[in-house]
Specification:
CATH class: Mainly Alpha
Number of helices: 21
Distance between the termini: 18 Å
Order of helices and strands: HHHHHHHHHHHHHHHHHHHHH
Shape: globular
Bound molecules: tryptophan
Radius of gyration: 22 Å
Largest sheet: none
Strand content: under 5%
CATH topology: Amino acid/polyamine transporter I
Structural class: mainly alpha
Length: about 500
């Protein structure tokens, strides 16, 4: 049996899981969603979703992750298996919790490679020269063209994709402590430092005109509360930013030491993530764009999506500053570090599947995982619509459903009392039983309502597509699920044999 690694220190464990959660979602996706859905109007459902759904699911994933780690499992395939005596159906269901992060990683890592590429292009002063214009469309134009040419994809883009894949490969090969934990220990403080620096630059620019941007986000009001779309987007953001609903937190939690207080660790993870989202993330992109262009331009700019804000609007704004190339470099470096600590986490469930269930060696597990991701990253780079299609199915729909499955299995089937016992056994904090009822009843209702309003209501228009590239993406997605299901069933025998062996030697 492979010996499972443990995180070396408490700080390392918290930084690594915070690095898991903190990513492009905090610094790019959050500000563009907040701006698009009315700033303060978005923030009310956002905070409600955080407390009613985000925090409970975060704690669930920590508890079950630790519980499963004690039994030698880290991936959702093994975890769901563990709860149902390794029945095939449970292991197949768990495969979704490996498929989701794997599929997301396939495009996430490609976007990560843009951030590295743009960081270098900024540093070597190869970014377009800024146009002085109050008209945002005009000012952003050179950067739009630049971005289009880059992601065509250009040779530069391809080179940085290969470099990014190699960096991830190398770190993962070094394992939990020397790879992931070490990267987080360096990366997380750098992210916070660069984030505060950029936030200060953005807020103070043009005589603190940037502050208006922050006020826009925090102009809390209830005008969005009746609009299902705002709720859906706010909840989707909570899932995405906290890395929930796909077993990505659980796999990190499975490497904790026996005595770790996982509830505290969960609170720390959520706390650091929210700080980097609603304080730092809110202080950079939107304030910078506010300072440069007028307030009316913001929703317009945000409408064109997350990539537009990060890779086109932001360089157009930042390059206008004195030493603009340097500020733009720091911006993209910040994005790269945030993305890197997340892409490592997106790959780990697959590695854990191979190591814990198939009993493969670490090197073999990492190699096969990275080959799959390399293939997926190429599809993201070369097949049009691939990113959007996978993002929609794996990054939104499957994620909500798997979040629901987590609650049903780990709270309802495991039993509310058992879950509560597991919860209080693992922490020195006094947790009222009411909290478990919120997890058991409020969170699932929340998820069901959101899924209903968002997916089921216009299901036919979502299902029917005619573009061959979209159909290809869906077939690919099914193929990945099938592949992981076969592994789930095949590895069952290996796990059961191991269990019998353990029984014999402990008799
Ligand atoms: N939380 C990450 C971000 O904010 C994205 C993400 C979603 C993620 N699910 C994940 C990262 C699972 C790692 C593992 O960008």
């Amino acid at each position: 049996m492979n010996k499972r690694e443990n995180w070396k220190s408490r700080v390392g464990l918290i930084l690594a899981t915070a690095g898991n959660a903190v990513g492009l979602g905090n610094i790019l996706r959050f500000p563009s969603k907040a701006a698009l859905y009315g700033g303060g109007a978005f923030m009310v459902p956002y905070f409600i979703a955080f407390f009613l759904m985000g925090l409970p699911l975060m704690i669930i994933e920590w508890i079950i992750g630790k519980y499963a780690g004690k039994h030698g499992h880290g991936s959702m395939t093994g975890i769901l298996g563990l709860f149902f005596k390794h029945a095939s159906w449970a292991r197949v269901l768990g495969s979704f919790g490996v498929a989701i992060p794997l599929l997301i990683c396939m495009y996430y890592i490609y976007i990560e490679s843009w951030t590295l590429g743009f960081a270098f292009l900024s540093l070597f002063q190869k970014m377009p020269i800024p146009m002085i214009s109050d008209n945002p469309q005009e000012a952003v134009k050179p950067y739009v063209e630049f971005f289009r040419a880059y992601t065509n994809p250009s040779i530069t883009a391809y080179t940085f994709l290969i470099i990014t894949l190699a960096i991830n490969w190398l770190i993962l090969q070094r394992g939990i402590v020397k790879g992931i934990e070490l990267t987080a220990k360096i990366g997380m403080p750098a992210i916070i430092l660069f984030g505060i620096l950029l936030g200060f630059i953005a807020l103070s620019s043009r005589d603190w005109a940037g502050l208006e941007g922050l006020k826009f986000i925090y102009n809390l009001n209830f005008s969005g509360i009746k609009d299902p779309k705002v709720w859906i987007e706010a909840s989707g953001q909570i899932f995405f930013t906290l890395s929930l609903g796909m077993g990505a937190i659980a796999v990190y939690a499975s490497y904790v030491k026996k005595r770790e207080d996982v509830v505290k660790a969960g609170l720390w993870t959520a706390g650091i993530n929210e700080f980097i989202e609603v304080v730092i993330g809110a202080s950079i992109a939107i304030p910078a764009a506010f300072a440069m262009f007028s307030a009316v331009a913001i929703p317009e700019l945000a409408k064109e999506g997350t990539f537009r804000l990060g890779f086109m609007t932001m360089p157009a704004v930042l390059m206008n500053f004195p030493l603009g190339w340097l500020i733009s470099f720091i911006w993209f470096l910040l994005l790269f570090l945030a993305a890197l600590t997340s892409s490592l986490a997106l790959t780990q469930p697959l590695i854990a599947l191979f190591e814990d269930e198939m009993k493969w060696s670490h090197t073999k597990s990492v190699t096969v995982s990275m080959i799959l991701i390399t293939i997926g990253a190429h599809l993201s780079a070369f097949v049009p619509n691939f990113i959007d299609e996978i993002d929609f199915w794996a990054g939104c729909v499957m994620l909500l459903l798997f979040g629901l499955i987590e609650i049903i299995v780990f709270v309802w089937i495991f039993g509310i009392n058992n879950f509560y016992n597991e919860l209080i056994q693992n922490t020195s904090l006094k947790i009222p039983k009411a909290f478990v009822y919120v997890i058991a009843f409020v969170s699932p209702v929340f998820i069901v309502l959101i899924t209903y309003f968002w997916v089921i209501k216009d299901f036919t228009s979502i299902i029917l597509v005619s573009e061959p590239t979209k159909i290809f993406a869906r077939i690919f997605l099914l193929f990945i699920i099938l592949f992981l299901s076969i592994i789930a069933v095949k590895s069952r025998k290996i796990v059961l044999k191991d269990l019998r062996y353990l029984k014999v030697i402990t008799k």
